[in-house]
Amino acid sequence: MLTGVESYLLAFIPIFVAVDAIGNIPIFVSLTEGINKKQRRKIITDTVTTATVVALLFIFIGKLILRFIGITIADFQVAGGLLLFIISMRLLLPSTPKGIVVEHHDKDMGVFPLGTPLITGPAVLTTTLMMVDSYGMQITFVSLILNMCFVWFTLAKAEHIIKFLGPSGSRAFSKIMYILLASIGVMMARKGLTGMLQ
């Protein structure tokens, strides 16, 4: 029983880091400023639905696509690990803004940019595929759904969380998550290189 729980936890954490639900809160608040509660609820629903559907599609057909074009898991681990590392480094650099600037409120912002690429972007897609390879489809599926439930909660309570953490606290939390993401990227690349050598 403990081994099963550990597997779910080990799959949940990398996806949690890649999704960065807390770090996305300030962007969500700025994009939805001045929007009434009903519209905001719709945007949250669109955001979580889009992010979940895109990630699930990649979980189920990602490996088939890789196999079709002749990419091995070891190849993907090295490339994915390097990609995660580069993404995390770009997010850590103060000169690289994560947010996407918009000049007006778009009714479809829940689909783009919030749902994808903000919530489910390259980091999440790469991580989920790695988790499928490491822990299997079921564990990855459950871990992803739990993460998306957490995203929904954080967006629904965004203003309260911002007040509790403050802008500085939210940024600090994000920086820690990006460092963890970089470490996960290095680990993936290391596993891929080991697989190639074997």
Short description:
This protein is mostly helical and 198 residues long.
What is the fold's blueprint, element by element?
Blueprint lengths: L1 H18 L5 H7 L5 H32 L4 H20 L17 H10 L2 H14 L1 H20 L1 H40 L1
How many helices in DSSP terms?
A: 8
Major sheet details: none
Shape verdict: globular
Radius of gyration: 17 Å
* Overall mean confidence score, pLDDT: 84
Low-confidence stretches: 100-104
Number of strands: 0
Structural class label: mainly alpha
Instruction: List the secondary-structure elements in sequence, H or E.
Output: HHHHHHHH
The first-to-last residue Cα distance is 32 Å
Characterise this structure.
It is a single chain. The chain has helices at 2-19, 25-31, 37-68, 73-92, 110-119, 122-135, 137-156, 158-197. It has 198 residues and is mostly helical. It has one domain. Mean pLDDT is 84; it is low at 100-104.
What would the keywords be for this entry?
mainly alpha; 0% strand
